[in-house]
Amino acid sequence: MRILLIGATGMIGSRIAAEARDRGHEVTGVTRSGTAGTRSADAGDPSAVAELAAGHDAVVLAIAPPRDGSEPSAPLLAAGRAVLEGLRKAGVRRLVVVGGAGSLEAAPGVRLVDTPEFPAVYKGESLAQAELLELVRAQAGDLDWTYVSPAIEIEPGERTGSYRRGGDQVLADADGRSFISAEDYAVALVDELETGQAVGRRITVAY
Fold first, then answer.
1. Tell me, what's the pLDDT at 71?
2. What are the start-end ranges of the H helices in 23-72?
3. Cα–Cα–Cα angle for 183, 32, 22, rounded to 5 degrees
4. Which contacts (CB < 8 Å, 24+ apart) does range 19-25 have?
5. 3-state secondary structure of 73
6. What are phi and psi of 29, to 5 degrees?
7. From the record, what ranges are coiled-coil (predicted)?
8. Exposed / middle / buried, residue 159 (Cβ in 10 Å: 0-12, 13-18, 19+)
9. Domains of the chain: residue spans and CATH
């Protein structure tokens, strides 16, 4: 499979690239700066996305909202719209989005990001990622999309190759902890790329 990976050098994106390549897939990495062997492009430019996506089987959008104190949703949503338009121009149908956990339901009808105990420092980017999910749900009906939310906690760790898959609700273990390593998140995402079991919906993965 030929995969265009937008955001290839981030904590999660770099692990997706490694996992996909280890399985024999061809990965074209894209970053704004073009460092570390990646292609340079602005994810908010539909024409640039279309040019890069041409000839690929799937696109993975793995960019995070800005954490420089600026308003986080506008650039993320601009990238989301540009990627949707770019895929259509390039004739690529498969899109997998690295999402956030804040839009998961902590209780029926209550998003995690809206709970009183949600850390204020993460609220802006979590709301931006939730808006991206709604954008994809509303505007990507003609594409084969999947939005993959991680567990509440995700950090570098061990690749076990094991995980559980859920839907719109927070997925936690028997002790109530919602966690997955970035390595096993990458396993789950590449599994979804290969199988297409969750086309047209959001999933979450955790231990």
1. 82
2. 46-53
3. 30
4. 19/159, 19/183, 19/186, 19/187, 19/189, 19/190, 20/190, 20/193, 23/190, 23/194, 25/1, 25/190, 25/193
5. helix
6. -85, 140
7. none
8. middle
9. 2-206 (3.40.50.720)
Longest dimension (CA), the chain: 47
- Burial track 116-151 (b if 16+ CB lie within 10 A, e otherwise): eebeeeeebbbbbbbbbbebbeeebeebebbbbbbb
Tell me the C-alpha distance between 115 and 201, whole Å. Answer: 23
pLDDT digits (tens, 9 = 90+) for 82-129: 999 999 999 999 999 999 999 999 999 999 999 999 999 999 999 999
Q: Tokens in use for 18?
A: 């490694």
| 201-206 β-sheet, strand order | 39-40, 26-31, 2-6, 58-61, 94-98, 144-149, 201-206, 164-166
Do residues 124 and 141 lie in contact, with contact meaning Cβ atoms separated by under 8 Å? no
Q: What pLDDT sits at residue 69?
A: 67
DSSP state at residue 169: B
Contact 111, 99 (CB under 8 A): no
Q: How many residues does the chain have?
A: 207
Contact status, residue 104 vs residue 207, Cβ threshold 8 Å: no
